[in-house]
């Protein structure tokens, strides 16, 4: 198993689809994972340590 960290959440230009970039902790490889808009929003809020007014789906599972 390879340990990764969240590098960024970007929008792919041609399809306007959110992409989660995962980078190897002990290497240089990057894995793009296409995700949905709701997941992208939740991950971006977590990365920016921002809280939404209403709970997101992930918040309900905590």
Protein traits:
single chain, 62 residues, alpha+beta, Bifunctional nuclease domain, 3-stranded antiparallel β-sheet, 3 strands
Task: Describe the model.
By secondary structure, the chain is of the alpha+beta class. It has one domain: Bifunctional nuclease domain (Roll), CATH 3.10.690.10. The chain has two helices and three strands; from the N terminus they run E-E-E-H-H. A three-stranded antiparallel β-sheet has the order 1-2-3, covered by helices on one side. A hairpin with a 5-residue loop joins strand 2 and strand 3 (30-34). The longest helix has 11 residues, at 37-47. The radius of gyration is 13 Å and the shape is globular. The chain starts with a strand and ends with a helix. The model has no long low-confidence stretch (mean pLDDT 90).
């Amino acid at each position: 198993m390879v340990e990764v960290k969240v590098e960024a959440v970007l929008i792919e230009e041609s399809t306007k689809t959110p992409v989660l970039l995962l980078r190897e902790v002990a290497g240089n490889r990057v894995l793009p994972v296409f995700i949905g808009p709701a997941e992208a929003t939740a991950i971006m809020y977590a990365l920016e340590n921002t809280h939404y007014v209403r709970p997101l789906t992930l918040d309900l599972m905590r």
